[in-house]
Amino acid sequence: MADMASDLNQTTGNRPAKYREREKWDKKIEFILSTIGFAVGLGNVWRFPYLCYKNGGGAFLIPYVICVVIGGIPMFFLEVALGQFTSEGGISVWPKISPLFTGIGYATTIICFLLNVYYIVILAWAVHFFFASFTTDLPWASCNHEWNTPACFDMSKIHENGSESLIGGTAGSIKDASVEYWEHRVLGISSGIDEVGSIRWELAGCLLLAWILVYFCIWKGVKESTGKVVYFTATFPYVMMTILFFRGITLPGAFTGIQYYLTPDFSVLWKGQVWIDAGTQIFFSYAVALGCMTALGSYNKFNHNFIKDCTFVACVNSGTSFFSGFVVFSVLGFMANQQNTDISKVAESGPGLVFIAYPKALAQMPWAPLWSVLFFFMIILLGLNSQFVGVEGFVTAVVDVVPHILRVGKRREVFIAGVSSISFLIGLSMVTNGGMYVFQIFDYYSASGMTLLWVCFCECIAVAWFYDVGRFSTNIKSMVGFRPNIFLAISWSYLTPILTMAILLYSIIQYEPLAYNKKYEYPVYAQVFGWALALSSMLMIPIHFIYYHTKTKLETAKESDHPHDRKYSRAPPRDKDEIDMELENGLP
């Protein structure tokens, strides 16, 4: 059959440009690996274990599982189903579902772009640590370096002193060698966001390398690039994690750390913050409200049984979070044992865990450089997978809006290069002396819990109440051969929107201004900029809703004033079955 794209008016010279057909996954396993690679990221390693320890140990699994069942899984299924049914990316899917909510597509695309800009900076840090690990003595293990201050101490001093005074009593006058390496050598951190300083060219080089890797992971599309890279990037971190697990549990103090991680404290279940932490972690962990799961689902064949695959991915995602706790807390238990201190003094979350606490523990192990290389290689793969799938999701969203422009010749590859270049230039602001402060603003506001929860709430309302949840279930049946479980329909209609709105309102009520390291308070203009990042996506939904509603009313009023023009100005009404048939056949 002749390519429909040959009828396009796009030309190259005197010859018509070829309009590429939309790709599909080469094999079913590539969809599974890509979704695992995107969903399973750094948050599974540095956030979930700490939240579990902080919020009652094993007792935290109760609110976590409840939020997974009524929040994470329903949203995950919904976004993948939308993509597979319409074969559209994050923006163009919504006009086919509910034109009033097309703003959801713009919101998710903005969030995805901002996330891609700052998330890759973590990769740059990891690349730096990875290269720094190729040495006989890890540079963050001692104080005899040019970046160290007189207040620096290392673990050898503790062993010689045999006292806890270096950890507790004089904490205000000393600073750990790993902290000084992180702040002085890696970040060169300034006193505040007002003091931007200069670009840390070493980090800038790491950032450039990360973007080059991302580009070549996706430049040829899901069939030739993304779908092939994930065979390694989505699986090898589990090899690394397993090696680190068995190394961790053989260390002295490991089981004390695991005990802290799992010991249940059921009294905390009455605290609202525990449930908020569980719910927020779920929506981060399942990578919803970014448009990327919709993009990944859109490359499935129409009759692919995504329900079976998504169930498997959900189990792997949550299972990885739980397993990573053993990897992290076995090593933290060892570090607490070596320092003769309580594990609460060494347990951290976020970058502090990956770039301070864990490296400090690695430095105390025999063959420390080897374990450091393995650990940071795992971190790079986890971050790289999430990053390049995130960029693929953004690119898919934009390309599907203007396929006649960007799916012609090599324009898609050029567009990806342009997006990568612009993102790299913005990211340079985060590898300056004041870059950590800029990074934290992006992290706290642009892809925050509030933005994701708001989008998830609107997605449920659009699908369940405007498009109709029964109709959506019928669409799923046309793809997989059976209607989804009634519980999913109930979740989309009631449970998930109630959960997301409850957490969103609680987060707004309990909002606290951003602070770095619990000490530095951001100036007002920096917080205003942060809120501008958050609202740049959140406001897209109500703005477009009002715009489309007003536009429709004006068009209706105009037709009423000129009834003789009605038959030319509007197509005849169609029933739902006709529209569904068009969607199933991939028609616009």
Can you describe this structure in just a few lines?
With 588 residues, the protein is mainly α.
Helices and strands in order:
Blueprint: E1 11-12, E2 15-16, H1 28-39, H2 42-46, H3 48-54, H4 61-86, H5 93-97, H6 103-132, E3 152-153, H7 155-161, E4 175-176, H8 177-187, H9 201-218, H10 221-233, H11 236-249, H12 254-262, H13 272-285, H14 292-298, H15 306-339, H16 351-362, H17 368-401, H18 403-406, H19 411-427, H20 435-446, H21 449-480, H22 486-509, E5 515-516, E6 520-521, H23 524-538, H24 540-561, H25 566-569, H26 576-584
Parallel strand pairs: 3-4
Antiparallel strand pairs: 1-2, 5-6
Give an account of the 3D structure:
This protein is an all-alpha fold. 68% of the residues lie in helices and 2% in strands. Strands 1-2 form a two-stranded antiparallel ribbon. A two-stranded parallel ribbon has the order 3-4. A two-stranded antiparallel sheet has the order 5-6. A hairpin with a 2-residue loop joins strand 1 and strand 2. Helix 6 packs across helix 21. The N terminus is likely disordered.
